[in-house]
Write a structure and sequence with these properties.
484 residues, alpha/beta, 6-stranded parallel sheet, 14 strands, globular, binds uridine-5'-diphosphate-glucuronic acid
């Protein structure tokens, strides 16, 4: 939850802020700023999203978000709006949090960013700081700047988009283009802890070109009391892509080692701990399993590869990272086939559909490929996830006897020939596995996240397999120094 000290410095009395795009980055950012005391317009073109927010309904699941939404609709600090023009015209700082999806060639699709830059240009009624928060390839801030300059100039007499802009400010006909700055302030929020990350970031990166931009952003983030790294625009942009690419590299590295562990009879969790305790390596993001998913890592990796190739910089490392990751679901499914021999006609329970715990997000979730393949191979699936089932129903509609959505893990296990663990929700760790075993037709568990203890599962009577620790042996007796 938000830090108490975060409320000490208030944005009250200052110009409002607008956050453009109410998605997984924009909404937590807007609510975080509202909690810091700023008046924040949460702007989005999508009517349904804004209507739901106005009625106090969080548009996706994120811990602690609903509480902040309720609180700041009531306080008036958070104001959802579809009137993007008016929100821009009425604000000094503009956070750009629109989507940067992936194009067919792997590059980032920046059309939403471009559209936003044009809208800003048409509503430039005084100094504005445009802060790019969406993950974008290096040099995008430069392009935003040029786009705003171009459209502000050519459309200065056009009276705004749809003829509605400038109504909160003065039309600039015959006047010079107001001054503006563009800054890059990449986000490092993890889904499932986005609110916590907003208030307790490891670091804040700001790429700026002017003292005004630097002062405004430092002022905004100072209450958080965290280190601020100040850079130029392209460096800030590249920091974000590099961070995601590096974290993905750690995951694919340990997944490759996981396969090697299986080949030579070693244990990947001990390897991860054995290397991770070296502070130069670090313990985090060395969890082997079914691979990384979500809206960020797969897409950002491809965008960085594309950027490298565009500039003639070989990015073979990143291609390797992607290749390892693409194979993870196959490695997992091979274990399922090995356990079941024939897939057709089998009933398979799948626990976990979200790409990771504490979110209802299923974008690029490994579970999607798993379920698709099971159905293709003629199995019936019984699916359960604490939060992601309604999103999953859009992809795999309920079809009784073939695709069943269940109210609990126990219900999913009923009559199953195998149970697959695909997302490491904490509630799965705490299940009564004797009850699960008794509900199943055949007690086979394939654990794609190494959530459970192999010895305990074998003892409970399961045929259990996991990732990279299949032949775990008893730890050798340690020989203390000096006793040899
Ligand atoms: C990631 C970054 O961690 C954030 O810092 C960044 O802001 C965000 O992308 C973004 O660019 O917006 P997120 O996608 O929410 O955050 O999720 P992560 O917690 O990083 O996990 C990504 C994937 O890697 C998940 O599928 C997860 O299961 C997997 N993972 C993670 C592993 O397989 N092993 C690990 O050790 C860690």
């Amino acid at each position: 939850m938000p830090a108490a000290r975060a409320r000490k410095v208030s944005g009250r009395g200052r110009d409002p802020i607008v956050v453009l795009g109410m998605g997984h980055v924009g909404l937590p950012t807007a609510l975080g700023l509202a909690e810091l005391g700023w008046t924040v317009f949460g702007a989005d073109d999508a009517a349904d999203k804004i209507e739901r927010l106005k009625t106090g309904e969080a548009t996706f699941y994120e811990p602690a978000m609903q509480e902040l939404l309720t609180k700041h609709l009531a306080s008036g600090n958070f104001r959802p709006t579809r009137d993007v023009d008016a929100a821009i015209a009425g604000s000094k700082i503009i956070f750009v949090c629109v989507g940067t999806p992936q194009r067919d060639d792997g590059a980032a699709d920046l059309s939403q960013i471009e559209a936003v830059a044009r809208t800003i240009a048409l509503n430039l009624n005084g100094y504005k700081l445009v802060v790019e928060k969406s993950t974008v390839p290096a040099s995008t801030a430069e392009r935003i700047k040029r786009t705003i300059e171009r459209y502000a100039r050519t459309d200065s007499a056009a009276n705004g988009r749809n003829g509605r802009a400038h109504r909160n400010g003065k039309a600039r006909e015959g006047q010079p283009t107001p001054r503006f700055d563009v800054a890059s302030n990449p986000e490092f929020l993890q889904e499932g802890k986005a609110i916590e990350d907003f208030f307790h970031p490891d670091r804040i990166v700001i790429g700026v070109e002017s003292d005004d931009a630097r002062a405004l952003l430092e002022d905004l983030y100072r209450p958080l009391g965290r280190p601020i790294v100040v850079t130029d625009l392209a460096t800030a942009e590249l920091i974000k892509h590099s961070a995601n690419a590096f974290l993905s590299t750690k995951i694919s590295f340990i997944n490759m080692i996981s396969d090697l562990c299986e080949a030579v009879g070693a244990d990947v969790e001990s390897v991860a701990r054995g290397i991770g305790l070296d502070p130069r390596i670090g313990l985090q993001f060395l969890k082997a399993g079914i691979g990384f998913g979500g809206y960020c890592f797969p897409k950002d990796l491809r965008a960085l590869i594309h950027l490298g190739e565009e500039h003639g910089v070989p990015c073979g490392i990143l291609r390797g990272v992607e290749d390892v990751n693409l194979r993870r679901v196959d490695v997992f499914l091979e274990k399922v086939r090995h356990a079941l021999w024939v897939m057709r006609g089998k009933t398979i329970a799948v626990l976990g559909l979200a790409f990771k715990p504490l979110t209802d997000d299923i974008r690029e979730a490994p579970a999607l490929r798993v379920v698709e393949e099971l159905i293709k191979e003629g199995a019936s699936v019984r699916l359960y996830d604490p939060e992601a089932m309604s999103n999953s129903q859009q992809v795999f509609p309920e079809a009784p006897g073939r695709v069943d959505y269940c109210r609990s893990a126990y219900e999913a296990a009923r009559g199953a020939h195998a149970l697959l663990l695909v997302t490491e929700w904490d509630e799965f760790r705490k299940l009564n596995w004797n009850k699960i075993r008794d509900a199943m037709e055949v007690p086979v568990v394939v654990d794609g996240r190494n959530l459970l203890d192999p010895a305990a599962m074998h003892e409970a009577g399961f045929e259990y397999s996991s990732m990279g620790r299949g032949t775990r042996r008893a730890a050798p007796v340690a020989v203390r120094a000096g006793r040899r």
